[in-house]
Design brief:
Double-stranded beta-helix; about 20% helix
Length: about 230
């Protein structure tokens, strides 16, 4: 484990970030925290309640450099081209100003009740680059591009999917006998065409975090801070 830090270079452009994530910035940069009137405030507060995302994402724009707080988390750089992705709640870290962050409701009862993600997840839409805060490094993520296919997962470790991919929960066996003999229960099921990113090692990181080992590792790794550079022109 080592500290990572996101550096954003702005060239007459803008970036939205999670509140509290700013470390410092240099250059001719202004911050806009406008909420868009009463209606805008209501929508943002609803997003906070439903998707567990911050109600307001400050917009930093201009020319210069923006540094975000160092973190032991891992960061994923995702490019969107007039498209939408659904990610776990709380993963959005920062992104280009043209992106929209909102709440996405589960489309069926099985996903809401048994999917392990709750009734709502986070939807990121538009064109631009966003950075997601991940529990695992990019090297441990399996990226699948489904072509009218089905992917089933025993566990809650799918981080990201295209909005075009349908998410539901299905039994591992068609009957009670099938479930008992398979040794499995309910499976997260992804159907359709689009991307699905899996983090099979995520449960291991959760286990380490709960045991207190991570805090010991973190205290011994504070000398090196890799910089992740994110350029917006």
């Amino acid at each position: 484990m080592s500290l990572k830090q996101v550096k954003i270079i702005l060239d007459d452009a803008g970036v939205i970030i999670e509140p509290g994530a700013l470390h410092f910035h240099k250059g001719s940069i202004i911050c806009d925290t406008s909420v868009g009137g009463v209606g805008g405030l209501a929508k943002k507060m609803l997003k906070k309640k439903l998707a567990d995302e911050s109600a307001f994402h400050p917009l930093y724009s201009g020319v210069g450099e923006v540094f975000l707080e160092p973190s032991f988390s891992h960061f994923l750089i995702v490019n969107l081209d007039n498209s939408s992705i659904i990610v776990d709640k709380g993963m959005f870290y920062c992104g280009e100003s043209g992106l929209q962050v909102s709440a996405a409701s589960q489309k069926n009862v099985s996903a809401a009740l048994f999917g392990g993600e709750g009734m709502f997840q986070t939807k990121i839409s538009g064109t631009g680059v966003c950075i997601l805060e991940s529990p695992v490094p990019m090297s441990e993520i399996l990226k699948y591009d489904l072509d009218n296919e089905k992917l089933q997962v025993d566990g809650n470790f799918a981080l990201l999917r295209s909005e075009s991919v349908k998410f539901s929960v299905e039994s591992s066996g068609k009957s009670l006998t099938g479930k008992l003999t398979s040794g499995e229960g309910m499976l997260q099921t992804f159907n359709g065409t689009g991307a699905v990113w899996l983090a099979p090692t995520q449960p291991v990181y959760r286990s380490i975090s709960g045991s207190g080992i991570s805090s010991m590792a973190e205290s011994s790794q504070k000398r090196n801070t890799p910089i992740i550079i994110f350029i917006i022109i």
